[in-house]
Predict the structure of LHFPL tetraspan subfamily member 3 protein.
Amino acid sequence: MDPKFNPETAKIYHFRYMREYRAVAVLWGLLSIIWCILNLVAFIQPQWIGDTPDPGSGYGHMGVFQYCYPDTAKEKYVCSGSFTDFDTILNDSFRACTFFVGVSALLMLIVVAALLLFFCFKKTAVFVFSGILQLISAVFMLLACIIYPSGWNHAEVTLLCGEGAGEYKLGECGIRWAYILAILGIFDAAVLAVLAFFLAAKRAKIEIYSASGTVTKSELNGYSETVSKRSIPIQPQVVAVPGEGDADRYSEYSHHSQKARSNRGFQL
């Protein structure tokens, strides 16, 4: 059984614990916002696969629902496909990928909106809720990245990537930055989910401390280092009031002092 700290020492540990806890929570919130933005970019940008500098490849690039080709007359790329109309998406694999990436981005938007719930709900519940959504977002993004190459056997992909393109075969095309961003997002969302569950568990211990007023070494998770002398609060000194017996001795001492001074004056 862990020994309990005295209240003054516990306040010092609690202050240090809360300072580092808030720093980690703010970092988690910032990373959640950043990944939400990157998730939306990976969903919208048609830069998952595309042409390479190799002269044998076609010209253009594709995303989860859009495919773009250059228009020489207008000197820009013309894109087709919309996530609001699944009939414009090339095949079922790309439709499934669009669904999973879109839902993943939507879940991260909900997580960012849930940051406002810290002002009106218990922080432990908000962390658990956000962690669950981030974990589901990571799973959906993983499914999208696995399913996407199964749609590379479409005629439009063959036109862009050559006859060597097929299911899970890219042919003469190359993987572009949006696909790489989506793959990295799987690990990012998973790490954020684990961190959210960690913060929820630590927040529960903080609430226990606030209710009990005492804290153990295990509750502080290692924040039991030796407190320096400067950090120890100064305890008030108790001044003892002399009792009746002390008053008698004080009177006797005063009488002898006056008598000694009188003798010295007489000798002079």
